[in-house]
Amino acid sequence: MSAITEALADKLAQDVIKASEETGDEQLIDEIARALGTSSPTTEEMFRTFVRVRLAEQRARRLLARKMASHTAKPQD
User: Fold this and answer.
1) In which domain of life is the source organism classified (predicted)?
2) By the 8 A CB rule, do 10 and 50 touch?
3) What pLDDT score does 75 carry?
4) Which of 9, 38, 42, 72 has an alpha carbon within 20 to 30 A of 65's alpha carbon?
């Protein structure tokens, strides 16, 4: 698929994740994805992929931050 479609789907994913977090609306991502799918199933799949990747990255970063905080809190020998 074209680079512009990927860029648009990724930007939309970022914006929708942020809106979902700010509003507490856990269904917003699926609602937007379904709306995309009515006109472009390909864009919907890209959007869902970018959402999954970005949410996974957020979870991994939180885990890393906890591990590093735990490591630095330990007394050094």
Assistant:
1) Bacteria
2) yes
3) 77
4) 9
Q: How many residues does the chain have?
A: 77
46 Cβ partners below 8 Å, 6+ apart? 1, 5, 6, 9, 10
Tokens 């490591």 correspond to: 71
Burial of 69 (0-12, 13-18, 19+ CB in 10 A): exposed
Q: Which two tokens stand for residue 70?
A: 């735990």
| Residue found under tokens 């939309």 | 12
